[in-house]
Task: structure prediction
Amino acid sequence: MGRVYSFQKNSRRPMGSIQKRILLITTSCLLGMCIIISSVSYYLFRNYLQNSLIHSTETSLQLLTDSINGSIDDISQIVRFCQTNANIATYIQENPNPGSVLSVSTYDRIFEEYSNNPSNNYINRLAVITDEHFLQIVSAAYSSTADLSAEVPRLPYFDRLLDASDYDFTTGFVKDSFYRNGKYILPILRPITYQYNSVRGGILFLQISSDLFTDALKRYKIAEDSYMFLSVGGHNYIYENGSLLKWTESYQITQDLSSSALIDSIYVNEVSDSEGTRLVVTSPLSMPDCYISQSISQSELRNHRFLLWLILGGTLISIVGIGIFLMLILNRMINVPVSKIRAKMLRVAEGDFDRDSSIEWNHELGDIGKGINDLSENVYLLMNKRLEDEKQKKDLEYKMLQSQINPHFIYNTLNSIKWMASIQGATGISEMTTALAKLLKSISKGTSLLVSIEEELSLLQDYFTIQSYRYGGTITMDIQLEDDAFSSCRIIKFTLQPLVENAIFHGIEPKGTGHIRIHIYSEKLTEDSPESIRIDVTDDGVGMPPEKAAQILLSNDDSSTDFFREIGVSNVHKRLQYEFGEAYGITIESVEGQYTTMSIHIPNTINQTQPVPPYTAL
Result:
């Protein structure tokens, strides 16, 4: 009679459409890729834009600096002339009265040099001063009647500028003390020494007009939100509406970006002030501690960044659109086949193993469909084979139990009975006959694979009764059960008998006499494993070498009896592992000439039923 298999299935979870999953995954990947590309592109382009504006600004600023430095060099040239000219040195040494020939000739020489200087229009006043007199070249607009030989030494910055080792512009722009409208000038005071020694004999006094800087800045084109700054001797000025105004607002350099500059002498800094953060490009002038700076236009940065966002946004939308279009096409191409394959799998789960040729297309999904069809057919064949194997297994178990007492054993038993009947009374014949009857009855009464240890020990006692008479009382056996509850633990039928027979034939018989001890107790195979049962079968026979003990668990070929060839230790070991698992079975410990212990390891099945097969049979 066939069996109907019932497969226990998990409750079916709601499964989202593969189309939605493909859409979600593809869109997420596209968006992620676009965001990464956009971010990297924006970062690179922003840096490129910033560097481009910095390079453009530093190039223009360098041209402005060169123009201002040219005028400064012209003024430095006339200063050097006044300090080294022999006529002026003679005038300083002689200190002639105004109107004298030396005074007039010296004045003419200074005026000639002044007139020929390209930047003379930026020199408001040039004066060579002695202790009592002075020669002055000044435009009519800035002329005055002041006695410079007396008034100049009274200027608050006189000693500091005159004693400086080089040009000193720490005064910044100051009001002209000799001009009624108070025009701002940059003063220069340098000593003039005597002709033949380095002793100071006179003073050179120049007033440089701020026009030197503003004229150059007027020709310099910048954006409306870009600012020009001039730093002179630690004083900061901002250029607004054609004039230089004192700039006192505090600021802080937040980042040094000078590495972005193309020209080594240029400084680039990120500056933070009350109006926010801006980039400032600074170029040094040829005057000591003087710099000119320009802030980069924020509007240009914003315009370029907006253009960048437009380009990146258009690229992003285009990539996403193309990706979605391709995804929808691909999704449509696989959605129908996947739906059919899914429906087929559901039918297989419900027990329909018929082949469905409609899912075997000529592409990769068709290969999957063919594989599912092959799998369903294989499952059906395996189920039928499992049924047949189960039937054959039961038949083999029955035959195996029936063959436990083979003809050879029966012949020996009957021969022993005949021998006993001829030499002694009826008591031995009665016991042997009774034991044999019990054994035959146990074999024929059923095919149950698992029995209690109590039943197994009863079978063993019957077997040993026969063998003890056969060997004339030269062998003895005792059984030690540490806990009476162990007697209800289940064990495979005819497990102990082959081990005791092996102890008699291979351990005690070569010695001639001996004792067998059966010890049943609990153990733990590992620290974390549950409690199990151990049965030691120990004989005091001849023992065996370790390689022989290992061979016994692998093969039965060394058996000396037909019975042991049928059901040997190896067979019992394999049956135990097949029934209870690889952790269980038989282990052997033996010392040659002393003893052999065969230990049976089985799970503790007290008050438990027989294990349930991995499927449910109805």
